[in-house]
Amino acid sequence: MRLYEKQPIGTVPRARQLRRDASEPERRLLRALRETYPHLKWRHQTPLGPFFADMLCFSEKLVIEVDGDTHAVEEDYDASREDFIAREGYRTIRVTNAEVMQNLEGVLTQISFSLREKEGARAVQPRGKDEGSSSKKKGDVA
Predict the structure, then answer these.
(1) CATH for the stretch 21-117
(2) Residue 23 to residue 126: CA distance in whole angstroms
(3) How far apart are CA 6 and CA 20, in angstroms?
(4) What is the pLDDT of residues 100-129, one digit of tens each?
């Protein structure tokens, strides 16, 4: 999939600059997502129409935004951005820098719930959980 095919000139350098200038909470969350869900491809500062998504997973149609202090005064911009992202078929999870830095496990739990909700409790397990140790299927009797 070519992400930049229909993007305006300057999109690639802008995305690269955003990745280079990423905040510590963004870097920390991206690292945790890639470690916790290695079977999913997480992209960082990816263009999505006229916007850039902090973290994006195409297969799960999920955008994760890590909000710093500036987002408190950019409510109209954030609302139009979320509307656009929703029209494109993506769900958005917003977390704050403080949440990522102080409660990373809680943020990952919130993301896990969102991943499960996508297809009605489809089995998306974080790494390290008891994956496939039981061959029991739903409805089987112990």
Answers:
(1) 3.40.960.10
(2) 24
(3) 23
(4) 999 999 999 999 999 987 655 444 455 554
